[in-house]
Amino acid sequence: MFKKYLRRLCQLIFIFIFFYLLIRNEYLIKNVIPVNLFFRLDALLAIFTTISTCHFTYYFFPSLVILFLLILFGNFFCWWICPFGGIIDILNMVFLRKKWKFLRRRPIFLKKLNIFLFILIIFTAILVNFVKIPNFFWFFDPFVIITRAFVFKNWYLFVFLFILLLSILWNRLWCLNICPLGFFYSLIGVKLRNFLIKKRRRKIEKERVS
Amino acid sequence: MKRREFLKNFLFISSIFLVSGRYKFKGKNTYSKKSIIRPPGAIEEDEFIYKCIRCGECFKVCPSNCLFSVPINKDIFSFGTPEIIPRKGGCIMCLACGDVCPSQAIKKIDEKLKIGTAEIDKKRCLVWTEEKDCFVCLEYCPEGAIFLDFKRRPYVNYEKCIGCGLCEENCPVIGESAISISTKGAVRLKI
User: Fold this and answer.
1) Quick one: A101 exposed, middle or buried, by C-beta within 10 A (0-12, 13-18, 19+)?
2) Chain B residue closest to A122 (CA)?
3) Is B65 helix (H, G, I), strand (E, B) or coil?
4) Residues forming a β-bridge with A66
5) Which residue from A46, A79, A75 is spatially nearest to A62, judged by alpha carbons?
């Protein structure tokens, strides 16, 4: 229970930081925290731009640190840091009650959409080195959606509100079923981590037997 | 979703992407170079469209509000990327966009860079057509790139002009401006 409250508090802090940076960005004042902090933590963004342009920008170095931390601590980013996930989580807490069980079953067509989007993004990043194709990756990046929603306040805001609405109907639908960044972080923080832990355990057992 | 179904969908969407790209190979086409004025410090166009993640940070930071999102009907490849529309707002060369760009599609620079060149439409200019005493472009030019001849008609010094667009923004001619910025001579940085 304590961990749950701590997580909520952490999410609130990061939501506050996100909006603080967004508002602060309007004024040309140098910040201690870079205004594009959350984009720098976005490893999928780093991978896409690095593969598609064959060039790594040192600005994305924090995303590599995040990947390393994910292997150490599991997928903490989506549940503790991500402001998009934080907003969704808080909305879920307010609106999604236990009575609404009829909406708990997720739509089948959305079940593995995140895997599909992730593969598509990596595939297009490789493909753009050979063939010219439009760059639509930014449609699916959570930080791009949330930033553009508050910068332009036009149809991006409606996309953001639509995602929030979906997430109110189904618990963390965006995070668990659509978000390609979330899938990538869970791939590293859960699947890869579990694989490494199992491998290590096997090695220790083998050593004991021998 | 079954594996076969997944692969089928994957191939279908990939083919849509391929068709929309019209099978053009990199380096041979000039698809998105049509009069899109990029902010100072922008990298070369071919890399820019993939390096730019359309986050909107540059739009937000721009104090003169001269940056606008490229609409899909103008160029599908550049859709959502920042462009300067000088008639709506000229660039004051604060270079803040380079500071906030997370992917460095707009690089951090310390000096002003040429982003285009101004050209006077002599058929629309009030001085050239009606011989009125209008020197708005001359007054607004921060680089002193506009000069007058002995008949007090304005000319542009192409070497001095950096294409900031303040002249186009403030041109008093109704409708299309009598002085317009083109991407001619724009300096684009390497990746």
Assistant:
1) exposed
2) B14
3) coil
4) none
5) A46
CA A171 to CA A95: how far, in whole Å? Answer: 10
From chain A, the residues in CB contact with B61 under 8 A are 25-26, 28, 35
| Least trusted range by pLDDT, from A108-112, A119-123, B32-36 | B32-36
Query: Does the beta-carbon distance from B10 to A120 stay under 8 Å?
Result: yes
The DSSP 8-state label assigned to residue B53 in this structure reads -
List A residues 149-188 in contact with B (Cβ-Cβ < 8 A).
Answer: 151-152
Give how far Cα A8 sits from Cα of A79, B17, B157, Å.
9, 40, 60
Distance from CA of A147 to the nearest CA of B (A): 6
Q: What pairs with residue B148 in β-bridges?
A: B154
SS3 B42: strand
Count of residues making up chain B = 191
Q: Give the residue from chain A lying closest to B67, CA to CA.
A: A152
Residue with tokens 């990327």: B81
Residue of B nearest to A152 (CA): B56
| Inter-chain residue contact A28 with B9, CB threshold 8 Å | no
B139-178 exposure pattern, b = at least 16 Cβ within 10 A, e = fewer: ebbebebbeeeeeeebebeeeebbbbbbbbbbbebeeebb
Taking an 8 Å cut-off on Cβ atoms, the answer to whether B57 and A36 are in contact is: yes
B150 interfaces chain A, CB cutoff of 8 Å? no
Distance (Å, rounded) from C-alpha B116 to C-alpha B129? 25
- Encode pLDDT of A42-56 as tens digits: 999 889 888 888 888
What pTM, to 2 d.p., does this model score?
0.81
CB-based contact, A92 to chain B, within 8 Å = no
Chain A residues with CB-CB distance to B17 below 8 A? 124, 127, 133-134
- pLDDT digit string (tens) for B134-164? 889 999 999 989 988 888 888 999 999 999 9
Residues of B in contact with A35 (CB under 8 A): 57, 61, 100
* First vs last C-alpha separation in chain A: 43
Domains of chain B, each with CATH number or no CATH: 117-182 (3.30.70.20)
